[in-house]
Design goal:
alpha/beta; Rossmann fold; 8 helices; 7 strands; GlcNAc_PI_deacetylase-related
């Protein structure tokens, strides 16, 4: 049977796997809002606590807990209440079997039909999107989707010790991808996206709010134009990979 050529119109459960608190909100919070509005149950899995972020002298041991709290608040703005953290060190992620296992565990727990993550490809035209942690999480998540989470013989301790059956994810949405082929119109939920972004006080308060809004709006407006949406609309874009 051939794979689908378009994303599913609706899924019951989605899992967003990103490297840092605020990653999901810059690139995908509007999309997530459209999903939760449609009744999809969304879970966030944040791989690090973002303890290497910020723009002031906040002690590093305080930054991680602060950013966890910010991400939890941001999630609520777009209808997400299940937010999980793996606690890996910010800025030092590597492609390891441990990381693949930890992501696979959550895939088997949540059993999502759709996974959203960062692209494992470097985006040469917008290098800021290609933080090494983003690339590592994107590749690790894809390896967890295929083959790890669906293979009962991969990480057998997940089944034997934790009772987590294998699970096959049907589609993966890759953000910040040079191959983006799908746009989500987020015009009607954009204020909730900004509410989520502004929850990340440690990351955005160093610049005026209007400058942040102008930058992010221009970016989303260009996304909409590139993908043929009507003038004045705003979009977030993804490369959708069918994996079932």
């Amino acid at each position: 049977m051939p794979l689908p050529t378009t994303p599913a119109a609706h899924v019951e459960r989605a899992l967003c796997v990103l490297a840092h608190p605020d990653d999901v909100d810059f690139g995908s919070a509007g999309t997530v809002a459209t999903w939760t509005d449609a009744g999809t149950e969304v879970t966030y899995l944040i791989v690090t606590d973002g303890d290497a972020g910020g723009f002031d002298e906040t002690p590093r041991e305080q930054m991680g807990p602060m950013r966890r709290a910010e991400q939890t608040a941001a999630a609520k703005a777009v209808g997400v209440t299940d937010v999980r953290f793996l606690g890996y060190p910010d800025g030092r992620l590597e492609l390891t079997l441990d990381l693949r296992r930890d992501i696979s565990r959550v895939i088997r727990q949540v059993r999502p039909q759709r996974v959203l993550t960062s692209s494992p490809e470097r985006f040469w035209e917008r290098i800021g999107a290609s933080h090494p942690d983003h690339i590592t999480v994107g590749e690790s998540t894809l390896r967890a989707v295929y083959p790890d989470a669906r293979n009962p013989f991969a990480f057998p301790e997940l089944l034997a010790d934790e009772g987590l059956d294998a699970w096959t994810v049907a589609e993966v949405w890759l953000g910040a991808s040079p191959r983006a082929d799908h746009a989500v119109d987020v015009t009607d939920v954009v204020e909730r996206k900004f509410a989520a972004l502004l929850s990340h006080v440690t990351q955005v308060s160093h610049q005026p709010e209007d400058r942040l809004r102008e930058f992010v709006t221009a970016w989303m407006r260009q996304n909409a134009r590139t993908h043929g949406l009507p003038e004045g609309r705003l979009a977030e874009t993804f490369h959708v990979v069918h994996t079932a």
